[in-house]
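Anyone have tokens for FUSC family protein? Sequence:
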Amino acid sequence: MIWARLKGYFDTNLAGLTQPTRSDWIFALRTVSAGLIALLVAYALKLDHPQWAMMTVFIVAQPVAGMVLAKGFYRLLGTLVGGVAAICITTAFGSGPWVLVTALAVWIGICTFVSSLLRNPEAYGAALAGYTAMIIGLPAFGQPHLVVDLAVARCAEIVLGIVCAGLTSRLILPKLASDAIISRLKRCIIDLATYAGGAFSGGDPATLSGLHRKLVADTQTLGEMRAYARLEAPSFAPRAHPVRRTIGQLLSALSAARALHSHAAPKNAALIPVRSELHLLVGELATKPGALDDTAPWVARLDAISARARRMPDAPADQQDDKLGTITRLTIAADFAEALKQVLRGLDALRAPVTRRPGPASQQPALVVHRDYPGAARNAVRAALATLLVAAFWLTTKWSEAAGTVILVAVVSSLFAARPDPVQVSWGFFKGTLLALPFAFLVGQIALPALPGFGWFVLFVVPILVPTALGMANPRYVGVATAFAINFLAFLSPHQAMTYDPGPFFAGSASVLVGILLAIGVFLVVLPADPWLAANRIVRAMREDLARLCLHERVPRRSAFESLAYDRINQLMPLVQNSGRKGEAVLGGGVVAVTVGLEILRLRATSQNHAIAPETALSIANFLRGLARELLFRAPGDPQTATIAVARHYAAAIAQKNATGDMLQIAASLRIIAAAMEDFPDFFARDRS
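Reply: yep, here.
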């Protein structure tokens, strides 16, 4: 009965997978082959725990070669640091069990703190350094003289797995991160054109909202691939900055398109032609086969549209037209055309990089990378406390199998601590582990003792691991499938001579499952995470960025601000993307903040123009100071200060004077800032937390 239910669960999940692609099959067969090679070499070298070599292959396995190299590199680095820490802690405190486990728990807390402040794959390496010390140090309990041998053996097994995974991913039909970036960026451009086409024609709001979320998510993936590509090929390093800049331009174009959709243009002779040309261009770009093979025609058309949009209309077409509103929308349309043009140029730069000599360094104002120190401290305390409490239970009861429970609590509470929903991730890990248990029992305790040998091992294991690797290639099932693969091999514990010994098998398996459940309980009870607190801290950092743009003496480059804004949104997205309308409002506000920042930069640049009257420059400076106060001190629900009203009044006064050129551009920027802050009032207000 149990077997039938497990088989049904497994079949149901496999049936839910999308049809595997050729790339998925290559990944699956390559991963399983690399794992078998690693295990065979571990047998030949007579390593004590050969399963670690094969497990490492599945741990670092990724569809893209650069991702494998990145995860493998930081896994190796984390293992080495954890091994050295285990040797030092065990040597210093090995004689006192309570002091030893306390020192290991503190080390895990420190590594979890560092991991929570970093990003993947660096964060993975830091977390690994913490629990590797526990994995090595705990088996040496009472025998500190063995810790060096254990550390060397663990490092050798992991190095072997990393080498096998890295070589096969790079040499056997590789999928390169650099190629994946270009492919993903092309899809982003097509999606952006589709979104803009709907925005310019009054498309369905639900469809546009879905496309908006997808585009923001894809920018996050592009950013991750950028880091992997740099490790995959040093030659890609000069192109890493263009990727970051192009992501910022994508967000700028998305924000401009959203603004044109939210504030539909009035029907006047000045705006309709520009809007129609943009609508026609993005429609062709989205539907024409091979549209991105040659970007030169699109760039030329966007240049012409941008130039036309920036030509201020001499007079309104009729008395009812809002000239300032028309100019504001023309400015946004020109910004969209310019940003899309830069995205296309970024695509060309990736496909045909040009070596450029670095120009003179210019001093930029501090654009601070956000570090969530309160969240990192919470994660550190939780991981250290959970590890220490379970270790205390182990020392008090002297239950031998509880050592495995201590290790799993340390692993899960550290590795998943910084996830937006650690409970959900840990539960997926538990399901994959539980599902692996009967398969490991049948293969390791029934089949292989009766039919020993590497050939039989391959025959029994490959039909299980290939579908598992296909699941790992599917983003929907990657967590459960990876947990299944790792724990299937851990429970199986393949050796050259397999024996039937169910007692230790079930005792060890039970300790693993209990450890994961205890870690889930820790996530639920001990300092439970609230993703909205972390999201509010990032939103506050974004408002502080805008205030810094208003007040800082030095003005940053547009690309520097766009890169920073992308970084903020990249951190914000996993925290709020599954939060319904509230999350969409926060993400929408984040993207709109890009527009606000760019208009602040435009005002700063205009105010430094010598052709602008001193009183105008002073008025701009006063407005920016008031805007900074609004961003830093107004709380959600509080009435907006006079800053927004001042912006609209000042813009209208400029328009009434029949001003032209720079003055009308100032008025348009003021209107854009006011409209953006009115669209998302709570985003641009200080949270009370």
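Confidence is low (pLDDT under 50) at residues 1-17, 315-321, 358-366.
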